Amino acid sequence: MGRLDGKVIVLTAAAQGIGRAAALAFAKEGAKVIATDINESKLRELNEHAGIQTRVLDVTKKDQIDKFSEEIERLDVLFNVAGFVHHGTILECEEKDWDFTMNLNVRSMYLMIKAFLPKMLAQKSGTIINMSSVASSIKGTVNRCVYGTSKAAVIGLTKSVAADFIHQGIRCNCVCPGTVDTPSLHDRIQASPDPQKALSDFMSRQKTGRLATAEEVALLCVYLASDESAYMTGNDVIIDGGWSL
């Protein structure tokens, strides 16, 4: 018996990183996983794994989300993962950077929750997990102005949904990782003017001496998706190796 047997889970940004690790972990625990991403070629790799279906989805497009939600008869867990990390202070954040980040990191979650929450309310049960970050209202982080702002908004959104629908059987929590070893992180390191220094800067703040793995974060997501966490809602759950201490 898996910890998620019989549960239907929809998640975004499943082609790589934490999203991919979570999709695999959910399926391993017996869930029926509907994994979405805008990256069709990478997403397609998940089709070879039992229990996972894939669907190309741009979570910044309301019409695509609404059409997708109409195709899903029932779901037990919605996991909003999609996001973007902008590097810079407020003076280095142009309006287009602000708009793109808030659109992908916050508005997409608003659209996904608004589309899928009515199905959960009809069932009188459902779990929503949102991807936030320690770089948010939890901790001010250098060169993460709009990213930290957006992830603080995700925490606020999470608590609001949890408070509004607690009596209708809905739980809503968010995951707040520190620095996670993902393809996205490596891309950002390589794109920096001095990749070696960028890597050194990331490692210097790791009190445990290493980065988190995507699989470690995925295991926390399995717990939040399972009935084991039935008494948890409205929480911003930190998994950062002590970075926020």
UniProtKB/TrEMBL annotation:
<dbReference type="GO" id="GO:0016628">
    <property type="term" value="F:oxidoreductase activity, acting on the CH-CH group of donors, NAD or NADP as acceptor"/>
</dbReference>
<dbReference type="InterPro" id="IPR036291">
    <property type="entry name" value="NAD(P)-bd_dom_sf"/>
</dbReference>
<dbReference type="GO" id="GO:0030855">
    <property type="term" value="P:epithelial cell differentiation"/>
</dbReference>
<comment type="pathway">
    <text>Siderophore biosynthesis.</text>
</comment>
<dbReference type="InterPro" id="IPR020904">
    <property type="entry name" value="Sc_DH/Rdtase_CS"/>
</dbReference>
<dbReference type="GO" id="GO:0006635">
    <property type="term" value="P:fatty acid beta-oxidation"/>
</dbReference>
<protein>
    <recommendedName>
        <fullName>Dehydrogenase/reductase SDR family member 6</fullName>
        <ecNumber>1.1.1.104</ecNumber>
        <ecNumber>1.1.1.30</ecNumber>
    </recommendedName>
</protein>
<keyword id="KW-0963">Cytoplasm</keyword>
<dbReference type="GO" id="GO:0003858">
    <property type="term" value="F:3-hydroxybutyrate dehydrogenase activity"/>
</dbReference>
<dbReference type="Pfam" id="PF13561">
    <property type="entry name" value="adh_short_C2"/>
</dbReference>
<keyword id="KW-0520">NAD</keyword>
<comment type="pathway">
    <text>Amino-acid metabolism.</text>
</comment>
<keyword id="KW-0443">Lipid metabolism</keyword>
<dbReference type="InterPro" id="IPR051122">
    <property type="entry name" value="SDR_DHRS6-like"/>
</dbReference>
<comment type="subunit">
    <text>Homotetramer.</text>
</comment>
<dbReference type="InterPro" id="IPR002347">
    <property type="entry name" value="SDR_fam"/>
</dbReference>
<dbReference type="GO" id="GO:0016617">
    <property type="term" value="F:4-oxoproline reductase activity"/>
</dbReference>
<dbReference type="GO" id="GO:0019290">
    <property type="term" value="P:siderophore biosynthetic process"/>
</dbReference>
<dbReference type="GO" id="GO:0005737">
    <property type="term" value="C:cytoplasm"/>
</dbReference>
<comment type="similarity">
    <text>Belongs to the short-chain dehydrogenases/reductases (SDR) family.</text>
</comment>
<dbReference type="GO" id="GO:0005829">
    <property type="term" value="C:cytosol"/>
</dbReference>
<dbReference type="GO" id="GO:0051287">
    <property type="term" value="F:NAD binding"/>
</dbReference>
<comment type="function">
    <text>NAD(H)-dependent dehydrogenase/reductase with a preference for cyclic substrates. Catalyzes stereoselective conversion of 4-oxo-L-proline to cis-4-hydroxy-L-proline, likely a detoxification mechanism for ketoprolines. Mediates the formation of 2,5-dihydroxybenzoate (2,5-DHBA), a siderophore that chelates free cytoplasmic iron and associates with LCN2, thereby regulating iron transport and homeostasis while protecting cells against free radical-induced oxidative stress.</text>
</comment>
<keyword id="KW-0560">Oxidoreductase</keyword>
